[in-house]
Amino acid sequence: MPSEGCAICPWSRPLGVAVVALTVAAARSAGKSEAIDLPTLARAANTKPAHAAEMSSDGQVVKHVLVVGVELLSRVVDWSDRTTCVLFGDGAGAAVLGPADGVEARGRKRGILTTKLKTDGPMARSLIIPAGGTESPVDAAAIEARTNKVHMKGQDIFKVAVNNLRSSSQSALDALEMGTTLRVTATALNLRNAATTSSTILDVLDNGAIVTCIQQSGGNGWVHVETASGEEGWVSRTYVEVVPDGGSGATCDPARAEGAVGNFQKALHDSIAWAEGTRDFSQDGYDVMFSFKLMGSCQSHPNQCLKFGSSCSTAAGRYQFLIGTWGSVKSANGLTNFEPESQEVGAKYLVSTVRHVTVPQSRAMTASELSNAMSKLSWEWASLPPGRYGQPNKSASQMRNMYCNLAGC
Q: Most buried residue, 255, 292, 377, 400, by CB count within 10 Å?
């Protein structure tokens, strides 16, 4: 059975031995709860939450942890030293921690998501109480020299604190939880067998490739991942981004597009998607980028310029909207996402408003109406006849046959 409580305290105590945690446990009638004292000044304040998080995580024996912090630093401050006496004082605080698995706020996980503990060995004597240990016991000489009080090399501490705070904060922010879905943002990204640039390259991942973090990592600049084909390795944290929704593609579900436009309008849209090659591909094309790379979410236009030859294209979605085109469509229609229903509204806007094609809403288009529509829409979609941009395109008869199959001519 999990323990109902645990007390963790730093080493400021009323007695000659470290029994503060035990005293707290007894005071709150905690029975046989675990009780741990963590000594030393700031180290205890920094490590208590990390230890508590580990002890109260899923699968551990402790259900809830009472974290108590108490410091009486005024006892060890040299009040004649103005460089230290203004920095150290007395204080106390307490908090109860417990498992927060699955608990979210505004779509984000709550709790202690990651920790970063750091020491700097060469700085060991930059903040110390020189006397009081076996190396230098407290005696009359020590008291006279005030070596039984806090001594600090202020400039050294300030420099290391600033640098370590920055690097540790960045490492904590870069750390990724196991199961996080990531998208490759580089043109090509090496998958290596270890977290170094000198390690063996196992594979080269394309831009837009989806991988999964299989171990909490990323704080050191490398992420342990698994590819869609099951290959494991390490990639640079710099060239992957977190995919919203975990890459499930839920927001790209084609069912979301049902009813967004009328049936005969949709038949024309389906014909365009067929010519573009996106119809029936993956999530019926709604999650397809240029060169058939897939995006993990349709929350927004991916705006990834994927290379072809000496150029690149940001085309994305069922109707291969360029980022500039989508910006205009989004603004004109008040759209807030790139989800299937928004893509359908966007396609209708390009057909009817930009290219001035009138689509009958109660019947299929006649042969001449469709031919006229193709002539106008071919300026928007290169795959439509007669082919305006020198790219492969469908013939007029192919488009007529596909449209009639869908609209019931």
A: 377
Query: What DSSP element (H or E) covers 53?
Result: helix 41-56
- 202 phi and psi angles, rounded to 5 deg: -85, -35
* Buried/exposed code over 287-305 (b: 16+ C-beta within 10 A; e: otherwise): bbbbeebbbbbbbbbbebb
Nearest CA to 48 among 4, 6, 101? 6
Q: Are strands 210-213 and 222-227 parallel, antiparallel or unpaired?
A: antiparallel
Q: Which CATH number fits domain 252-407: 2.60.120.10, 1.10.530.10, 3.30.930.10, 1.20.1290.10?
A: 1.10.530.10
Q: Is 31 exposed, middle or buried (0-12, 13-18, 19+ CB in 10 A)?
A: exposed
Spatial contact of 230 and 202, defined as CB atoms under 8 Å apart = no
The per-residue pLDDT for range 117-174, each reduced to its tens digit, is 777 778 888 888 999 888 899 999 999 999 999 999 888 888 887 877 777 776 666 6
Reduced to 3 states (helix: H, G, I; strand: E, B; else coil), residue 22 is helix
Helix (H) or strand (E) segment spanning residue 162: helix 154-174
Q: For helices 263-276 and 396-407, what crossing angle results, to 10°?
A: 140
Q: Which amino acid is at 178?
A: M
pLDDT-wise least confident of 23-27, 29-33, 285-289: 29-33
